[in-house]
Amino acid sequence: MWKRSTDVICYYLEQARHYISENPNAHLHLYGKVEAKHNCKMGHVIILTADVDSCELIAKDASSQEG
Asked: Which residues, at least 6 apart from 7, have a Cβ–Cβ distance to it below 8 Å?
């Protein structure tokens, strides 16, 4: 199993939530921060796949949806 992690900046939190709701192999891990500061990392998305090529394609798709 391959794993890829992508940071979630405060501006893209809703897009990350939407992405994981449509992708069963993605998991959102939030850091539990109460307040979002400028360019603050709020968590990360973890993507699990059976092979490295799929993992990279899914990660590209996820980052292209940021904004």
From this structure: 41, 43, 44
Tell me how many degrees the CA angle 7-49-46 measures, rounded to the nearest 5: 20
Check: CB of residue 39 under 8 Å from CB of residue 2.
Answer: no
Count CB atoms within 10 A of the CB of residue 36.
13
Range of the domain at 60: 2-64
In contact, 42 and 30? CB cutoff 8 Å: yes
Q: What's this model's pTM, rounded to 2 decimal places?
A: 0.67
How many domains does the structure of the chain reveal? 1
What does the pLDDT read at residue 31? 92
Q: Could you read off the pLDDT of 17-60 as tens digits, one per residue?
A: 888 898 888 889 999 988 888 888 989 888 887 776 666 666 66
